[in-house]
Design goal:
Layout (H helix, E strand, L loop, with lengths): L13 H8 L1 H29 L14 H15 L16 H4 L3 H10 L6 H26 L4 H12 L2 H10 L2 H23 L2 H17 L1 H8 L2 H11 L4 H33 L13 H7 L17 H17 L4 H14 L20 H19 L1 H9 L7 H29 L7 H13 L4 E5 L5 H9 L15 H13 L4 H10 L2 E7 L7 H9 L5 E6 L3 E6 L2
Parallel strand pairs: 1-2
Antiparallel strand pairs: 2-4, 3-4
Helix pairs in contact: 2-6, 2-7, 3-5, 3-21, 5-6, 6-7, 6-9, 6-17, 7-17, 8-17, 8-19, 9-10, 9-11, 9-17, 10-11, 10-13, 12-16, 15-17, 16-17, 18-19
Length: 565
Amino acid sequence: MAYPSAQAVPHATGVNRIWRSLPFWRSVAAGRSYRQDLLAAAAYLVIALAIGRNLLAAGYPPGVDTPTFLHLSWFTVETLQGRGGLIDPYWYGGFSAFTTYPPLSYGVVGLLAALPGVGLVFVYKVAVFASFAGTGYATYFLTRQLGHSRPWAALGGALALTSYPLLVAVGLWGWFSSFFALPLALLSLGLLERAYQRNSRRDAFLAGLAMGASFLAHHMTAGAMVLGLPFWFLFHFMSQRDQRRELQGAALLFTAAALGSTLWWALPWLANLLEADFHREIPGLWSFSVRSYVRSLADRTLIGWYTYPNYIGIGLTALAIGGILHSFVTRSRTLPYTVLLLLLLAFSLGEQTNPLIRVGPLTGLDVARFQLYLAPVLVVVGLPFLASVPVALGELIGQAKAIRWVPRAGVALAIALLLVQAAWDSVQASSRMFHTYRLSPEAEQMVAWLGEEGQGGKVLGVGFWNWDDFFLPARLHLPVVDGWHDEGAANWREVRPLRIMMWTGQIDVVTAHSLLDELDGRYIAIQDYFFGESPHKFREALRQHPELFDQVADWGQVTLFERIS
């Protein structure tokens, strides 16, 4: 099964071949291989810790979605310790958390945190770093299975680990389930490659289990990576006619393991999703022009901002373009991943450029996540192009002895530029985004007041940007009006107008009073933390209607109103 690859592997001959065929030598080589892989994994963990070192300080990890997963992890602990159940009473007036949201990521955190003497935040931070570093290692593993030497694969893992789409997913958005699921999906693809190359049923089965685990961590992430599998199958089916039986066997085992490990959860989830009948106001959540997307790719001023389209970097962009062209010209084993990269790119462009996103069920996608998904695939596609630079330069300039060093110098310069940009982006991201969150003194006073003088009833948080959805249930066992996963909530239609008021700043106090009455909401807590939720406008609007809302406490940056029945 000969494919073009980045590196030529010398074949052992004569005595050397006999020596290398001995069982002793094979066991020594296998041991060395495991040690080198372990060293690579340790190196990625060191890089992850260097970038996210500030997260080791006291406080919660950052990210707008982080409170969601802390809450789900906490409720898992409650359930395992006999205080919870299958219905989470703290969100949306009752929320089927384990059915509505893939359970593996927060379930693992909750399971470990339920052990005696183990803290929830500590376990969560460990899981963050393990998933973060795991994406680097999984990219390394996949590139190894595609025929790259360890140095090239190590470079690929480092580039994926330090790519801004991954940094922003960890340190800004807090997409814990996505970057938990991503290394599992990449590992699955690597195992599938190995299963086909070695005709290994075990690896094919493990590949399916890994993809199933990815789906159970985050269905959208696994689904995005599965997009490339039909093209992978077709590529090998057409390229290696004498290996079709092995290919079909690997594909069947993979599919059976993936479906067998996920259907038990996927079917109830789908039924719940259809019953809720959720839809977004904007298909794909984000809408923008292709011009703004292209302009953002190299705009470093976007680092650390809650915005999309976002920055990727000129180096990775150039690597992707070169890799796409190289894979089509050489028809290398990365061609299916090139198709996958193009598909991920198409979804990341939003509904203005890709009209398919306006068609259900694609309207429910979060197109911003597709930049995260394409980052490691971009590296996989780009590495063969980078490895081919010395050959291309050698053919271009000839083989004169005086200039034979130019091709190697050229590729060394390209690698250096990529690593310098990756390091610089990581430094910027680390300083701007990787800081722990702590409740402000004013928020602590509000929590104390609700615990001592509160009369029960649900709380609507404004300007907390979802942190109230975690710490009010966890600290006081106090329910909140909304949550952070409308897709599976039975009452999302009643909650949505309140959230739209926050985002637009157009507050209808009479309507808010009526909705809170319907949702059993008693308090509105306002904090000047995230101004995108219009805390100032909300506060002033409520103060103009003392007949509907009574200001019961004010601590400066935090104000508490009570709905008058």
